[in-house]
Amino acid sequence: MTQTKAPMTPEAAARIQSAQAKQNGGSVEKGSFTARAQSSAAKNTSTTGKK
Question: Cα–Cα distance between 6 and 30 in angstroms, integer?
Answer without folding.
Answer: 24
